[in-house]
Amino acid sequence: MIAKYYKYLLKFKRPSGTSRGVLLEKETYILEVFQNENKGIGECAIFRGLSYDDRPDYEEKLLWLCENIHQDSEFLKEELKEFPSIWFGYEQALLNLKHGGKLYFPSEFTKEQRSMMINGLIWMGDVDFMEEQILEKLEQGFHCIKLKIGVDWKSEHRILQKLRQKFSKDTLELRVDANGGFSKKEAKIVLQQLSDLHIHSIEQPIKAGSWNDMADLCAETPTPIALDEELIGIIDFNEKKILLDQIKPQYIILKPALVGGFSGSDEWISLVVQRNIGWWVTSALESNIGLNAIAQYTFTKGSQMPQGLGTGSLFTNNFESSLHLNGEQLFFKG
């Protein structure tokens, strides 16, 4: 078995506002694995400023993986435990090599017999831009919308109030993602305001790392709290248990590129299921290569909740996709 990698810069169609600022492009790395006449492809989807493995020796480690690709996967997993996005790319490449072509997790989804419901994502921006996106998603038939908040809460609150006046909680599920944008004191007020509007959940109301504060909020919140950035960098299985038992969140959000790939996500799922904590999967600006693999993986988990899977339509120079969106339903077309 041999391997090689190359860097790829995804270009946004329009500047995209995130908690990491406004993005014009997104760096990623494509890993290719070869054995006999067969080829497997995966995406090492680093997210600069957010990934645990955003460090100067990233490419050095990718090169090391290519030179050691023939080694036992358990050995490689241990060596790459501090590089979750590289391990994520490795898992994809080997699965793709095994199943050939566009497949990673064969299922009724990849046989084009079933689809998956996703939420509509509303990007940060001024009120007009956010309202324009919301109208578009509603016209497309979405029943679950996720809004990024925490930049201008007064305006964001007004948008949510308007939405609730038009659509009941039974008609439209609303999720919000604060990306750690509030202080604990602010979060307490916001959580009550969200509850008054029957908001489904809020992701990461305060910055990651303040476990005691987050535990206090989760213990008394009127709006369910989902951990997102809080999971990044928690590598050790026992530390995952400690985090969940201390904070006791209502939900967790799994981004495979940030939490150690599919095996890392499986670990989290096994722990939250035992604790009656909910979960769903979200993509993190991967190209269509990583997104395709995440969608296939997510379907096999059997969750009935709307998943946070992008459709790859953000970039001007994305790879060809096997994923197609019809309203809120995501389909695989090989």
Keywords:
23% strand; three-stranded antiparallel beta sheet; seven-stranded parallel beta sheet
What does this structure look like?
This protein is an alpha/beta fold and 334 residues long. Helices cover 37% and strands 23% of the residues. It contains 10 helices and 13 strands. The chain has a 7-stranded parallel sheet with strand order 5-6-7-8-9-10-11, covered by helices on one side. The radius of gyration is 20 Å and the shape is globular. The model has no long low-confidence stretch (mean pLDDT 94).
Ordered list of secondary-structure elements with their pairings:
Elements: E1 2-18, E2 21-35, E3 38-44, H1 58-67, H2 73-79, H3 84-99, E4 116-117, E5 120-122, H4 127-140, E6 144-148, H5 153-166, E7 173-177, H6 184-196, E8 201-203, H7 211-220, E9 225-227, H8 237-247, E10 251-254, H9 261-274, E11 278-281, H10 288-300, E12 323-326, E13 329-332
Parallel strand pairs: 5-6, 6-7, 7-8, 8-9, 9-10, 10-11
Antiparallel strand pairs: 1-2, 2-3, 4-13, 12-13
Helix pairs in contact: 3-9, 8-9
Pfam families: MR_MLE_C
Organism: Chryseobacterium balustinum
Protein name: L-Ala-D/L-Glu epimerase
